[in-house]
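Batch 3, record 17
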Amino acid sequence: MAKEMLTGNAAAAWGVRLAEVDYIPAYPITPQTEIIETIAKWISDGEMDAGFVTMDSEHSMVTAAGAASATGARTFTTTSSQGLMYGFEMLFTVAGWRVPLVMVNVSRGLSAPITLGPDHNDILALRDTGFLQIHCETCQEVLDSVLMAYRLAEDDRVLLPLMVNMDGFFLSFTREAVEVPDVEKVRSFLPEYQPEHAFFRAGQPMAQGVAVLGGEFYSYFKYQMHLASQNALEVYREVSDDFERIFGRKYGTIDEYMMEDAEYVLVMTNSFSTLGKAAVKRARENGIKAGLLRPRFLRPFPEADIRNALKGKKAVAVIDQNISVGKGGIIYSEMASCLYNENSRPLMLSFIGGLGGKNISQEEFDLIFEKMIHAEDSGIVGLPHLLYTKKEWEGIKKLKEIAGRQ
Amino acid sequence: MLRLRFHGRGGQGAKVASRVLGSAAFLDGYNAQDFPLYGAERRGAPITAFTRISRDDILERGLVSQPDVVVVMDETLLSDPQSTPLSGLKKGGVVFVNTPLTPLETKEEYGIEDHVITLDITKISLDMIGKPVLSSLAAAVAAKVAGIGEKALRDALEKELSGIISERELLDRNTEAAIYCYNAVVPISIETTEKFREKENVISIPFETALVSSPSILSKGNTPLRRTGNWRIFRPVWDYDACTKCMTCVARCPEGCIQLNEDGYPYTDYANCKGCLICAEECPVGAISKVRESHSQTEEEDQ
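Prediction for the assembled complex:
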């Protein structure tokens, strides 16, 4: 099928349509709403055959989605930011049910102060739930990842729910050329879901998601989820190989840009990685051997691939588009723990950038490379740094004046 | 890479214009990206939308801060401090303004030094489509400036508009008006050089106590300072000979802008009237007419 101009939201909706999902419980929230609007219109126009129900809240929505997934229906739902938080309790529950629900989260900063721009504290708050996580840079990647998500989540060796993430506005509302695959091809990649472990049938009674009293039982079930999540890395290799064979596009657990001979590496996720790639190109023009590593999976964390990609690098700068208040960048901590036991490991610098969709300017990227080179020369790694410019500081000063806060 | 920025008001079609242009460029064989930016969606509020067109991969995202081309779909935005449509325009860049003024008059009126093209697309839209919806017309002007072919534009209009306009005849009128605008604009070559960009200084921000750094507002009475009168495309004008002083308009105005004068006749606060024209629709005797705004009114003129 030919390419067409699609937003990240429309690309997600296409992924759901092509996966021939059976049931979609929904609740609107900016900047996600376009996904459910698009799906609702297709269903209403008879172009898609699925059950669609608007719920009273995200808490009910996640519950309905998990329950539907437990009946053996291929289920999809989507939310963003505050909505994800409102359904938060049920995310742990649904993951514990071991059902292959696929959700899309459209990242948006968390209140307070309330905002619309993207950052990743919403999706990263989920990291301990049991949901697998795929983070996307482009609209094509969103569509493709939804398809791969069902293959992976429905695999018997995994059977965990999966969240596909994209940035609000910067991807959800940005259109670029996307190839919408042919449905027959998709069927050969993603056959109809045949549930063998979780389903409800008349005449075959069972109880799912039961209570256990006793830590030894609880520990068993929780650790099984962890092992299943680890399995997903191996299973994903098969999924990714099949996807490449059928559709010609290759997606690893990590995306590597100009990494082969790179000495100084940016680590970024999601759509701002595009800005990071432009910065790498500029740095290369200035004689700096720069590269970019973009983890696509954050759960399971692709430790082996990351260690392998960073072998022999001089310095790594992690740009976290999130902040764990009281600790700092979340991905920085995860990267550091993943490299700690390596005999020879790069220096690692921490930057917080792009919170609430704040721009990362050329000079901010320049500073990052400068600090990496300085750390390599001196052996001294500076403190974690919030990327912020003087002009932005003047803006916040003015805002405070207007608000009577000085 | 060519970077275009559209400035319009919510409801005028800036987002759709950026999409039609994006599709046209894509259909003409370019890499393209389009993206709208608006806060809380609100009819009449300033919005921007962007289109990037390139032979190479586009390694950019988000808003365009240094456009080669600016398309001003609503002239009043040129004097709106919330909008500043010309900011960041590159040297040698092009400004299109939707105005009845000539390019020279526009340059003088707004002190623009860059290349200016003008066309009264609101009038063309009213004449040819019957309502002031500017998306396809603004896209057509931009497509001409960007050097996109007419066939790609026609195909893009068909693709983008057929999803939002169900009436075939209305879609055809849109296309006809767009092609009229496309042909009315003389092609020019754009050779921009990056404007001297003020280097950003990266800083470390200090701790400030929550008395300063919590997101709450202590000062009172800011809202009346924000005038919304320049959102109007049409202004309501009362004919006191026909008015029966029934006060329906006063009751129906959603903004509470309409009051009564000493003689009991209604008048509106033009500094804040958004031009929704519910008053004109609701007036039982048709005493309120719609008069096209050609430029923003100052407060003194309104009194």
